[in-house]
Amino acid sequence: MYLADDSALDVVGLGDVRISLPNGSVWLLEKVRHIPDLRRNLISVGQLDDEGHAILFVGGTWKVTKGARVLARGKKTGTLHMTSCPRDTIAVADASTDISLWHRRLGHMSEKGMKMLLSKGKLPELKSIDFDMCESCILGKQKKVSFLKTGRTPKAEKLELVHTDLWGPSPIASLGGSRYYITFIDDSSRKGIKMEKTIPRTPQQNGVAERMNRTLNERARSMRLHAGLPKTFWVDAVSTAAYLKNRRPSVPMEFRLPKEVWSGKEVMYKDRSSVVSDVIEIDQKKSEFVNLDELTKRYSPVLNYLLLTDGGEPECYDEALQDENSSKWELAMKDEMDSLLGNQTWELTELPVGKKALHNKWVYRIKNEHDGSKRYKAILVVKGFQQKEGIDYTEIFSPVVKMSTIRLVLGMVAAENLHLEQLDVKTAFLHGDLEEDLYMIQPEGFIVQEKENLVCKLRKSLYGLKQAPRQWYKKFDNFMHRIGFKRCEADHCCYVKSFDNSYIILLLYVDDMLIVGSDIEKINNLKKQLSKQFAMKDLGAAKQILGMRIIRDKTNGTLKLSQSEYVKKVLSRFNMNEAKPVSTPLGSHFKLSKEQSPKTEEERDHMSKVPYVSAIGSLMYAMVCTRPDIAHVVGVVSRFMSRPRKQHWETVKWILRYLKGSLDTCLCFTGASLKLQGYVDADFTGDIDSRKSTTRFVFTLGGTAISWASNLQKIVTLSTTEVEYVAAIEVGKEMIWLHGFLDELGKKQEMGILHSDSRSAIFLAKNSAFHSKSKHIQTKYHFIRYLVEDKLVILEKICGSKNPTDMLTKGVTIEKLKLCTASIGLLA
What we know:
This protein is an alpha+beta fold. The protein contains 23 helices and 29 strands.
């Protein structure tokens, strides 16, 4: 391109440009030349004319039109005709005087209606009403020719005459599954209701209600089209249209506002708390539909999910710099980089030929501290999915401490009144030494000047690397052996060290540590050793571990393990925090099977939008940690994750309602003793589909549950004796593991007592006599006989009504549930 001074500017590209117009639509300009050095954006009048546009220059103003649409307008400045395109709206308040914006806020109200509101002083921020054609209105308000009108006088009293009509069915179900809506229109005001019948299948006689349905549909369609939302949002759009309809001038009521006539209170549109703040523009990435108290109370999961997705944490580096807390995120990134550089995590070098540098990203998290404060944390994470097995890594397995180990040790703390301290390893994965040569690009925002072409050769492990957990564990394990700790064979993340009159136990879960001991001086000495080797944060007395609150009362010698806060978050995540509580984990009316799986395409499409698998995962974590009372029902609903149906989802919601009613239920260690006892039971062919049986067991230490399970057996059994016998061997293995573990911790048990309510199974385990009804049982299941003969397991009969494992196999009554939970230390 040549300028007037004969200088030339380079055209670097050719493409299409979309310009947002004042009326909210988009103007597409094709074959636009990209000239970076040109200071102004120029539009060719000749090109517009060739494309069929009309350009009008009158009295120092100009505008471009195509048909009835005004595409652009502006004023003459000097010898140039200038225009400007509106920038994206960030907040509603920034565009309060935009006429087209108010047109959309008011549900695409007509120009006449807006002028009437302006004349009544309802829109004080606008000076005049004059807007261009709205494309969404054209698309949304097309209609057939009207019937001839007949004169009618409005009624004088409220509710003297009410027009009503049911609209539907909608071809598209809403997000909540709705297909109908009903309208009620009061003809004027208040006393006495009179019913006037109309001729069947003659909607023209019910013109008021029919016209109202059309008005609501037109406005809802216009709002939805403008927002670019799918048809499933039609219910929200119609609700918003009804809300706004009551706040616009009504012709039959001499242009008064229906809301003012009904309530006697003045409506002002400048009240941002009711109209502006709730009718939010789609540019803000929130729901555009109002959700005021006056709208119909109905179940709407979408808005809650939208709120939950806004966690206030940036997704990338650019977002962090634009965030309102950008200074805190910058400080967090600086702290992370200081730790990485101080730990000599990498060195800058040139990338060797044949090697590939891994990419990375910043991950931002807001952590809630024990004292209620918030900590801003930035973590540099390598994109480990780019690694290739055998080249960039070999072994990746790394152990973590078992939940049953944590509960067992907490039972010891309560029984012997031990000290319980907690430590957190800062940047734990950075301490691991790498065995492979790995390279990474420099972190975004911290690229060294004049060394932009260099990459980072990793010396230490980083978050995101596939081998990072394993390398950290190997480093920590070596250190613990050097300072005299023994790793337990029963759990490789449990370390113990014995002294003359005391001992210390350390539990490791990735970067969280629990330290238990009777001598606080020795515990403090271990803390110093750990802090000297690794960057540590001393959290003092343990109050929370893995989302479980530790509530300790040393005066009464009790220790409680609670997940009430976690359960509250789960209820909120699935919009069940206002649900009606129930008293049992599984209702007696639920009979679940695979035959209930979706049969039609519509059912499958509906269930694909239900967060079934996510809900099961959330429930499973509560069950594994502190809630054995839901073990059976969670096991049942998890069998249908591949093809769940509505009945299965209703069962999941029932479990959530049960948790809502038992928020304060927690495991309570009373410190009574360290006696280990086991309870076993099984149902017979309880699974409707496979006819397999369920093994259930629970082990208590000092009367409180430390290990439990409710699992489907791998074989189909032929009798109740066989199913109880098979269950006993599975539980016997758990008994051996717990006995060995307690022995390693210096708490050797005299005998392992296993309670069963099946006399025939106990007899079969104690006597190896040949019997025609048991000859088919596989050899591996006779292992229980060896355990009984060597007195490693003592089988004892327990009355079925006193066996706490009943709740782990089937739905039970409220009274039975209370008995079962109380007998294993699960108390409210």
